[in-house]
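thread: overnight batch results

M.L. [08:02]
morning all. the overnight job finished for the chain we discussed friday. pasting input first so we're all looking at the same thing
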Amino acid sequence: MSGAAGPGPPVGPGRSPLPCAPRPAAALQLSGGTEPARPGVAVIDLRFPRGAAADIQEIVFKNFYTAFLSVRVQRPGPGGSRRWVTCLRDLCLMPCPHTEQGAQDYFSLHRNQQMLCDMDQVTAVRFILRQPSPVWLQFTIEELQIFPPGQKSPQKDFPSWLSQLTPLEQPASLHGELPDPEKVSTEVQQMWMLTEVIRTRQAAARIGRFDVDGCYDVNLLSYT
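M.L. [08:03]
and the structure it wrote out:
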């Protein structure tokens, strides 16, 4: 499972992200001994204004040295309760956590391609970041944007005569309507023979004016 990645933000023209307020990444700490240990895990919580719910189509962000990403969403549960559901698990953002590849790329997550659960009526989103390499002390995701499902283009009014034209994309089907090849060949031969007969008669008609009672008039042939 992978998300679309690239050097620039994969944001199409004419789209507006949903209003939201992501919190800064909070690193998880395990207390052990005298000093807290850092397991390389951070969490970013995101909620929509006034506790509103939203339908999510796409999540766009810029990586900052996060190696793996998991996403959980809060959705309506039975009896009007809210429950957390994992919709993305351990997406690899850096092929090798110890190197720079993918460390600052832009990523795009689509509901129909990467998400494992329904993304409708979401009230909160939780991003779980992991970086197992000790090389990078700071890691997070930036420029986080969430987009709703796109709206269909409004229908435009066209003249009635334009709607009656046959579309070029749908040519008439010729399957099952082709004539018999042998029949066509026979008709072509008959038409050729008929053409030869007509041509012969036209040649005879051009010299017929010199014919008198079945023979040629010598005077007409000599003085015309």
